[in-house]
Amino acid sequence: MKLRSFAVAVGCFLLASSAHADVQSVAIVDLGSPGTPPTSPSIATAISPDGNSIVGTWLVVPTGTSQHGWIAPNATGADVATDLGFPPGVVSAAPMGINDSQFIVGSFRNNSIQRVDGAFYARPGAFAPALIPGLSGQSSAQAVNAGGLVVGYDQSGPGGAPQSFVFTIPASGSGAIPQRIGAFQSPTLIPNQAYAVNGSGTVAGWAVNAAAERQAFVAKTPDGPVSQPVIPGSHWSEARAINAGGDIAGCAAANAGTVGDCSGTIANNSSGIQAFIVRNGTPIALGVPAGFDESFALGISDHGLVVGTAHGSSGSSAFLWYFDNGQLKTIDLTTLLPDHVSFLSLLTATAITDTVLSTTATIETLGATIVGQGLTADSVAHAFRLNVDVVVSVPEPETWVLLLAGLASLGWAGRRRVRATPVTSEGVFMNYPG
């Protein structure tokens, strides 16, 4: 069932007398790090749609830059980050996507093969990375769906400009070649990067528009039409995630000259960057949480729950956004932590998946699994897995008229900038590609 209470009005949020909402933390797991010592920082980059598998990266040397990939749970079913066991020649690896069958995609570097990161796919079990053929320069695979459809980007455009690719993992052996998104190939090669793909093969990312600015795109097929929803009041935007219904999440900047992207790893407190979603073709600004200066949406579930991060002069925090009966709920995930857990705070949430646990005529309970990175009591940045239950109201039929009216008049509003000094995050590892 889709999350049906997904709307916002200009200037204020619509509230119904029957509005009910609740978010409860069920459990959090410190996934640790395969590093020795275990103080090596780690981060979760993706979770499979069924919530059973998580991948991420860890720093081989806590103070270094070389990273390797891990998967959880391990072979015995324990929620522990376990090195993927890539061949010794692989000097760095960054898994960025995983599907329910445990096909993994990302980028890796092998000094005997290539000098730059190359997009790879790895089959379940052995997880031996295979380079995706036909790509140019530095490349990265960002996501894979249940059918083995992989999306990402390389540097095959003029002057090394990025170009998206769509690749189907072959049933066995090799022979498959990447496709390009046709709308961006003619009359000239338009710079573009794909970051997400859903089960039906709809691709999302960003592409340069007629105003020479990055703008989020959605392509239902590589050869079909491409839509670029306009985010009100923004000069550039990027889509970083897509759900089964084709809704996208990402971030946008109101200032034309803003430097940065929507990876969530760049903290520039005067950027004016803020998270957004596009649901059923309608853009909705998620704003910036109070006390922070910029926000990034990095994941969106099939039922409309959104996760990401916010930066401020005092640091970073992971956030959950959702709508309940027309009211935007913004939850700092650190506030859900029980007192007895090893984490002091949750720094960023990179991905989310969910399922309907129960539903009645008035409320719906969603069970969500969120992954990302938190700061432990030992001041080590570790990957986490967080399970939460989200209870939302089911709006009555007459409420829909008001909700749709609010959506129709939505503007880019509510951005709050409270500080403009740099974020300091010593010891925090948030260095994942993209």
CATH topology: Neuraminidase
The number of distinct structural domains comes to 1
Global structural class: mainly beta
Which strand order spans the largest sheet, edge to edge or round the barrel?
1-27-26-25
Top-tier CATH class: Mainly Beta
Helix content: under 10%
Q: What is the total tally of β strands?
A: 27
Oligomer classification: single chain
Q: What is the residue-mean pLDDT, rounded to a whole number?
A: 84
C-alpha Rg, in Å? 20 Å
Strand count, sense and barrel status of the largest sheet are: 4 strands, antiparallel
Strand content: 35-45%
Q: Poorly predicted ranges (pLDDT <50, ≥5 residues)?
A: 1-21, 398-433
Number of helices: 1
CATH superfamily: TolB, C-terminal domain
- Outline, from the CA principal axes? globular
Order of helices and strands: EEEEEEEEEEEEEEEEEEEEEEEEEEEH
**Could you tell me how far the N terminus lies from the C terminus, measured between alpha carbons in angstroms?**
31 Å
Q: Please name the CATH architecture.
A: 6 Propeller
Question: Descriptors for this entry?
Answer:
434 residues; mainly beta; Neuraminidase; 4-stranded antiparallel β-sheet; 1 helix; 27 strands; 44% strand; disordered N terminus
